[in-house]
Write a structure and sequence with these properties.
Pfam families: Aminotran_1_2 (PF00155), GntR (PF00392). GO terms for molecular function: transaminase activity. This is PLP-dependent aminotransferase family protein. Keywords: Aminotransferase, DNA-binding, Pyridoxal phosphate, Transcription, Transcription regulation, Transferase. With about 450 residues, the chain is of the alpha/beta class. β1 and β2 form a beta hairpin. The protein is globular and about 60 Å long.
Length: about 450
């Protein structure tokens, strides 16, 4: 476990009053008992943990001594500190990257997530209720692949955006994270090699961690993956390439047409399976949605993961997978193991929302344009040394702070502000100076949060 991951898991552990070693030991012990820090794992070196937490090394050493005395860990000179099995519960396979999505207190200023509030289209549809439910009440309510009407609506939507699709090529999921986990699980086994963009979506990194795969990041170079490094990585025999070529999370950049074709060429010359995250494709600052790899990559080896959360609302738990019809049948059987079907009510609401997708896209584009300008103005005023590249879309800026952003995030915790530093988005804990800053917060809230951290 790296120091950055442990810091993420710890959350706001430092008290206003009391001894720091006791509080740190209590926080780590709590993680052990909950299974977030499993038996047998090595804690990060004391010097690295102290640097990540912004505290003295002696504080960490004292906390470790307390853990050893209480039976949570064993320490051996030259061998580090290891968690004892007698105190630890089963491993959860989490690294803390998605802790932004826990229920934070109202006093906490959350700048760690780019999730947008409900759109006007979503609010209007939700206010109208579900009028089409009666015919489904006479069924058992289980539609593992999704309601036929929603699969058709999604297929029509994708076809209109120049990705011809049949309903048989759609599997409705309970959100995009469910789609990503299902898609990854269908392709890899523990120990397999997975390639991904670096930086990348942190939810995907959590899935890779839970599946026990090896991960190699391919650096982003301006308008897309470094194709030369991708070609080299293909020689290692990966099972999967995970990427985002429409609107990239967290950088907000779009892969150029030339680069997209080059990536497709490398993929088509290999045997690798591709999972493309298209979740932010509709959040383009330009007119229309950003394109994807569909039509360029062999359709038998391309799986697309999509969501309604970006355009409409995260509380509507509707995502989907687009893939070849044979693969959709396999994925449908696989999803039954842990999730028999998606809510019929949510699916019917999604049908009505997707029928207004162009309206919702225009609404989001206007919001993001306006808020981006306001956010950049606040950053230039309060953080004039911070730098960022112009974005093509998405709800966030990828900002170079010029300092250790993980340490900045740790300091921010202590004053009630949650930040998302670069290592959360990297398979190799890279991008140490980077922060992902959401652009949708109002100016005063953003200003207040930045002034105290």
């Amino acid at each position: 476990m790296t120091a950055a991951h442990l810091a993420d898991l710890l959350g706001p552990w430092a008290p206003e009053h009391g001894r720091l070693p006791d509080s740190l030991a209590d926080a780590i012990a709590d993680l052990v008992e909950q299974g977030f820090v499993p038996a047998g794992i090595m804690l990060p070196p004391q010097r690295e943990l102290a640097a990540s937490l912004g505290i003295a090394r002696g504080t960490v050493a004292s906390a470790v001594s307390i853990l050893v005395e209480r039976g949570y860990a064993t320490a051996r000179r030259g061998s580090g500190v290891r968690i004892r099995s007698g105190k630890a519960t089963a491993q959860t396979g989490m690294s803390g990257r998605l802790f932004s999505f826990t229920n934070a207190s109202a006093e906490l200023a959350d700048l760690s997530t780019g999730a947008l509030p409900a759109s006007r289209v979503a609010r209007e549809v939700l206010a109208g209720g579900v009028r089409e439910l009666d015919p489904y009440l006479d069924t058992d309510g289980y539609f593992p692949a999704g309601l036929p009407v929603l699969r058709q609506t999604i297929a029509d939507y994708l076809t209109r955006r120049h990705t011809p699709t049949k309903p048989s090529e759609i599997l409705v999921t309970t959100g995009a994270q469910h789609a990503t986990q299902l898609a990854v699980r269908s392709v890899v086994a523990p120990g397999d090699l997975v390639l991904c963009d670096d930086p990348t979506y942190r939810g995907a990194l959590e899935v890779f961690n839970s599946e026990g795969v090896r991960v190699q990041g391919i650096p982003m170079r301006g308008d897309g993956l470094d194709v030369a490094l991708l070609e080299q990585a293909m020689k290692r025999g990966p099972e999967l390439l995970y990427c985002q070529t429409s609107i990239h999370n967290p950088t907000g950049r779009t892969t150029s047409t030339t680069m997209r074709k080059a990536i497709a060429g490398v993929v088509n010359d290999s045997s690798v399976q591709v999972i493309e995250d298209c979740c932010s494709a509709d959040l383009s600052l330009g007119v229309g949605a950003a394109p994807s790899l569909a039509g360029l990559v062999d359709p038998d080896r391309l799986i697309g993961c999509w969501t309604c959360s970006k355009l409409f609302w995260g509380g509507l738990r509707i995502g989907w997978i687009r893939a070849s019809a044979p693969r959709i049948r396999v994925l449908t059987e696989l999803r039954k193991v842990g999730d028999l079907a998606t809510s019929v009510v949510d699916q019917l609401l999604a049908v009505r929302m997707l029928q207004r997708v162009e309206e919702a896209r225009d609404e989001r584009r206007t919001l993001l344009h306006d808020q981006l300008a306001r956010t950049e103005a606040v950053l230039r005023e309060l953080r004039p040394k911070w730098r960022w590249e112009p974005i093509h879309g998405g709800p966030c800026l990828w900002v170079d702070t010029g300092e250790d952003a993980a340490l900045l995030a740790e300091r921010a915790k202590r004053v009630g502000v949650k930040l998302a530093p670069g290592p959360r988005f990297s398979p190799h804990d890279g991008h140490r100076t980077m922060l992902r800053i959401p652009v949708w917060h109002d100016q005063e809230s953003l200003r207040a949060a930045l002034m105290v951290c």
